[in-house]
Specification:
Length: 299
């Protein structure tokens, strides 16, 4: 069982109105909070798609298109994204081997955030000038995370920009530390490089840690822009059949602004259509811009 609460505010304003020109604008804001209050069998966490085990490690093919990283977690918003992270010390630094410089994957899954947006803002604006009408629709969705599983697949094949960032040469793992006394003290790592920055690292270790591909899902989108023209009645009234005619040129998904950490794809471009949301993969086609023209004739 889940408990969800929401706040919604809606504002519409006719900002300008003259004989030949008008401008109206609408803004809608929604804030949603929720949490799981009970899970059958008194469980504290439940995998939404337990048939998909490969996704836990962030490697392999999903096959059935369901997100095995999606969980119901008692007391948290539904659903939560869980995947493997690196072993870290209390300061959040990645623990590396003091000899090989290699990090190690944690043995347990980590909760990395909710996958449904907390905040949604919608903006619409309409301009009219004589027979021309110009419409703009934009929105923002944020407060959630996305597992860019497509990044893991790219790094496995060596096609990802991440795997090429160091030229496949040895490097010091960022924000890392090592210990020589069993974890009592940690020293910031500034000179111990990974002993293999090629096959033994990127496709065998790095891409198996799903946390490397979890980013903010915040996104601003210019959803649609359309300009239309109403033909003068004198152009078609002679026919005595046509009642109205107009022409519209429109574009959808024209602009997307997202955090620089998400270098992969549209965070709304999830691989499934069920409630196990929060992940994309190489099994999908890329998001597209759509440009269309419409001639509308009413009889």
């Amino acid at each position: 069982n889940t408990l969800n609460k929401g706040l919604e505010a809606d504002l519409h304003l006719n900002a300008v109105r003259t004989k030949d020109f008008s401008w109206s604008i609408g803004v809608n804001y929604t804030h949603i909070t929720g949490k799981v209050i009970t899970i059958n069998g008194n469980q504290t966490t439940l995998n939404v798609s337990p048939t998909n085990q490969n996704a836990f490690a962030g490697v392999g093919q999903t096959g059935n298109g369901t997100n095995g990283n999606s969980f119901a977690v008692l007391g948290l918003a539904y659903p939560q994204l869980e995947t493997y992270d690196w072993n870290r010390n209390s300061a959040g630094q990645v623990i590396v081997d003091p000899v090989t410089g290699m990090p190690s994957k944690a043995s347990n899954l980590s909760i990395l955030g909710q996958v449904n947006p907390k905040d949604i803002i919608g903006i619409t604006s309409t301009f009219t000038y004589k027979r021309f009408t110009f419409n703009i629709t934009a929105d923002y969705r944020g407060g959630n995370v996305i597992f860019n599983y497509i990044g893991s697949a790219l790094d496995f094949t060596g096609n990802g920009s991440t795997s090429a960032a160091t030229g496949r040469q040895r490097f010091v793992f960022p924000n890392s530390a090592y210990t020589t006394d069993g974890g009592k003290t940690y020293t910031k790592n500034t000179n111990i490089t990974v002993d293999d920055a090629n096959f033994s690292f990127w496709p065998s270790l790095y891409n198996s840690v799903g946390a490397n591909y979890v980013t903010s899902a915040d996104v601003w989108k210019l959803r649609e822009v359309a300009i239309s023209y109403d033909f003068p009645k004198a152009w078609y009234s002679v026919t005595k059949i046509v009642q109205h005619a107009s022409f519209t040129l429109s574009g959808r998904n024209l602009l997307m602004i997202r955090p620089g950490t998400n270098k992969w794809t549209d965070p709304e471009f999830a691989e499934g259509t069920g409630n196990d949301a929060g992940r994309n993969s190489e099994s999908q086609g890329p998001p597209t811009r759509v440009i269309s023209a419409t001639l509308s004739v009413q009889f």
